[in-house]
Write a structure and sequence with these properties.
Strand content: 15-25%
Radius of gyration: 18 Å
Bound molecules: adenosine-5'-diphosphate
Strand order of the largest sheet: 3-4-2-5-1-6-7-10
Structural class: alpha/beta
Distance between the termini: 23 Å
Helix content: 25-40%
Number of strands: 10
Largest sheet: 8 strands, mixed
Number of domains: 1
CATH class: Alpha Beta
CATH architecture: 3-Layer(aba) Sandwich
Length: about 280
């Protein structure tokens, strides 16, 4: 049940207590006439800085390596980092009817507000509804072409944009990202509960920054204490996808725009084709 700021709640609930957006009068948005998108996966985190955009990009790369046609919709409007991680820049083309996504070195299509701003370091000083409107336009106005998996990088938290995406896009599921810090664990619980309440399937939980390997002695160091990702996933009855250590190579490749060169097997065992269609 969605609790509004004044304690109001969605009246139209499914049996499980969650909000069925189709019953709330919020229609799923129609994709652009030039898009045929088969699956949509969102990546969510409770708080910023846990590596959500990195996980989004790694998932996109993994799917692309498996031969799927992949797009990344960067819905983290005020902190868009996906174009930088893929090394794409410059204004996106438009023909007046549709906007065309940039294409990465390995053929992943990318759309982000940073590709519509004259200067990528200009701040976006917009109120929530305007931001949510921009994200909707990334669905309705972008000519994505044929896409097997569109991966959506949500902004951190449970605000306007995650709500809009869950209500307006035909999501197959959500990947939730956390890190070993207690605070991240506490806040990711909110993200998981929101997803459950919105009746969106959870694909699984990823724990990022879980330890590091000492470059001198090779010993694993739990920089933020022992991870609780696996326990947390078990407690919520959701799959634990795996953990990613703090890795300077990943950080460097993100900074250099070379994330497609990163070797990761994180998503190798996930059967995304088994997602609800
Ligand atoms: P978020 O989307 O949650 O705000 P990002 O994915 O943008 O987080 O990551 C924040 C920064 O941390 C980026 O510079 C990224 O390169 C770095 N980073 C993320 N995960 C790792 C990791 N496992 N090892 C090293 N650096 C990482």
């Amino acid at each position: 049940m969605i609790q509004g700021p004044g304690g109001s709640s969605c009246e139209d609930k499914k049996d499980g207590g969650g909000c069925d957006s189709s019953q709330c009068g919020i229609e799923k948005l129609k994709e652009n006439d030039n898009s045929r998108i088969r699956n949509v996966i969102a990546v969510m985190s409770g708080k910023g800085g846990v590596g959500k955009s990195s996980v989004t990009s790694l998932l996109a790369c993994e799917l692309s390596k498996k031969g799927y046609r992949v797009g990344v919709l960067d819905a983290d409007i005020t902190g868009p980092s996906v174009p930088k991680m893929f090394g794409v820049r410059g204004l996106a083309d438009s023909n007046g009817l549709a906007i065309f996504p940039h294409v990465s070195a390995t053929g992943i299509k990318i759309m982000s507000l940073n590709l519509l701003m004259p200067n990528e370091d200009d701040p976006v000083i917009w109120r929530g509804p305007i931001i949510a409107g921009a994200v909707k336009q990334f669905w309705t106005d972008v000519a994505w072409g044929n896409i097997d998996y569109l991966v959506v990088d949500l902004p951190p938290g449970t605000g306007d944009v995650p709500l809009t995406v869950m209500q307006s896009l035909p999501l197959n599921g959500v990947v939730v990202v956390t890190s070993p810090q207690d605070l991240a664990n506490l806040i990711v619980t909110k993200a998981i509960k929101m997803t459950v309440q919105m009746n969106v399937p959870i694909i699984g939980l990823v724990e990022n920054m879980s330890g590091a390997v000492c470059p001198h002695c090779g010993k694993e160091i739990e920089l933020f204490g022992p991870g609780r990702g696996r326990e947390m996933a078990k407690a919520f009855g959701i799959p634990f996808i795996g953990s990613i250590p703090l890795d300077p190579v990943l950080s460097r490749l993100c900074d250099e725009g070379g994330i497609e060169k990163y070797q990761s097997s994180l998503f190798i065992n996930i059967d995304l084709m088994a997602l609800p269609q």
